[in-house]
Design brief:
Residues 34-53 bind DNA. The protein contains 10 helices and no strands. It is mainly α and 204 residues long.
Length: 204
């Protein structure tokens, strides 16, 4: 008979720590959240935490990296199935990103973690690497969907603008959630597609 595995794998341990950290950060604030509290919330010892991450900052960077990688995979999967810009935005709106990772469910926490990590100068190059990956992805989406719609745009420039728009709405929601709906960015993108006529059938 095969032995039943009881101990979680390394990936399972990291995901449990990510989930626990998101809960503790939300409840106590990032600065006040301790490693002991995060480990306990995940059902692990302090030693288990340190066997995976050297510090709380390292955990935060790993959470951001995990979120970016999952986001890249998610968007490229949508892009493979929806190359028309209007269809892509509709699919993005309908997709359940909340099931991917704790930062996918909590975009405001995502923004808070980015700002927290950015305060440490030595961490900024790592954040910049993830920002470039996001820009490249959005440029790829713009290039593919605009080509399918018969429009000629600069993908890199348009991608940077869209990414700045998304981050701007996240910041606005962090400051004033009452007047900034959770889907503000997608609403804005839908408005833009209508404004430049992407919602109209292509002329033969």
């Amino acid at each position: 008979m095969s032995r039943v595995r009881i101990r979680p794998t390394r990936d399972e341990t990291r995901q449990r720590l990510f989930e626990a950290a998101a809960e503790v950060f939300a409840a106590r604030g990032i600065g006040a959240a301790s490693i002991d509290a995060i480990a306990a919330a995940a059902g692990f010892t302090r030693g288990a935490f340190y066997s995976n991450f050297e510090s709380k900052d390292a955990l935060i960077i790993a959470m951001l990296e995990d979120h970016v990688e999952r986001s890249l995979e998610h968007h490229r999967d949508l892009l493979a199935r929806h190359r028309d810009p209007v269809a892509y935005v509709a699919a993005l709106r309908a997709s359940e990103r909340s099931r991917q990772d704790p930062l996918g469910r909590a975009p405001l926490l995502h923004m808070e973690l980015v700002l927290f990590a950015a305060r440490a100068e030595q961490r900024r190059p790592e954040l910049a690497k993830r920002l470039r990956a996001r820009r490249a992805l959005v440029a790829e989406i713009v290039a593919t969907t605009m080509r399918a719609a018969g429009h000629d745009v600069d993908p890199a420039r348009a991608g940077a603008m869209l990414l700045a728009l998304e981050d701007g709405f996240r910041l606005h929601r962090l400051i004033d959630p009452d007047t900034t709906p959770a889907d503000s960015f997608l609403r804005a993108v839908s408005d833009l597609t209508r404004a430049i006529g992407l919602d109209k059938p292509r002329q033969a």
